Amino acid sequence: MKALHHVGITVKDLDASIRFYHDVLGLPFSNEPSPWFDGPELGPAVGVPGAGLRQVSLLLGDTTLELLEYKSPPSDTTTPLPSNNIGASHVAFLVDDIHETAADLTSKGITFFSDVNVVDEGVLAGWRWIYFADPDGYPLELVEVAYYNDEDRRQGIAAYLSTRA
Question: Which terminus has fewer CB within 10 Å in the chain: N or C?
Fold first, then answer.
């Protein structure tokens, strides 16, 4: 495996999500929104029988964020899974200055779940992080890595691996 190519998020309304991710968060387009795909081969290919969907890809550094809207079959849920559920996920955006980025997003109407969290001990020492949600309630995170304890992390990983059978 070479890199993470893309992360896909299923959204309720692709156009509303484009307004949020492109217009508010500022992610540039990788491709324009697709037409609806709903051929008989699509369902088996994505593991969703009877699937009909459209998508857009937005750029995020060397990775792509893919937004997908399904017109069929209807969703079994009306909101994303809470983070403690198996299968739940979130997307974290790396930023240079978390306080500046949070202030900018707050001025654009974003509400954060808490103040910026600062970690200066343990396996994530150096992280500054804060969560918020997209229009569908999907959890998103800002992360600033203020410093990185490379030697501590290498030692921790080695210690962990030495305990595995």
Answer: C
